[in-house]
Design a protein that fits this description.
10 strands; 6-stranded mixed β-sheet; mainly beta
Length: 113
């Protein structure tokens, strides 16, 4: 199993980023996927989830209305569109398959002026 997150960077408050997570080594289309994040000195926390078909989606309250999770099963990729970013969104973002114990290396998102 391999998960490769990308798309992070430095962005000003109010800006946008689109994260990608390319998956391999398992039947991607059969698994729900989740995004998590971990800020310095804090525990890793849930951000968003999407089921295998994309028909069932959930978000942490802190990102509802600002973030959108989606997936492309043909490309074995899950995305996280992040809009109206706030300094509190600064963290390393990770993706994970439901029921799988593998993590990628994460991608750093820094929101700062």
């Amino acid at each position: 199993v391999q998960l490769v997150e990308s798309g992070g960077g430095l962005v000003q408050p109010g800006g946008s980023l689109r994260l990608s997570c390319a998956a391999s080594g398992f039947t991607f289309s059969a698994f729900g996927m989740r995004w998590f994040r971990q800020a310095p000195g804090k525990e890793r926390e849930f951000v968003a989830a999407i089921n295998w078909s994309g028909g069932n989606i959930d978000y942490a309250n802190s990102v509802k209305g600002r973030f959108t999770i989606s997936r492309d099963n043909a490309k074995n990729t899950v995305y996280l569109q992040m809009n109206s970013l706030e300094p509190e969104d600064t963290a390393v973002y990770y993706c994970k398959g439901d029921g799988l114990s593998y993590w990628g290396q994460g991608t750093q998102v820094t929101v700062s002026s």
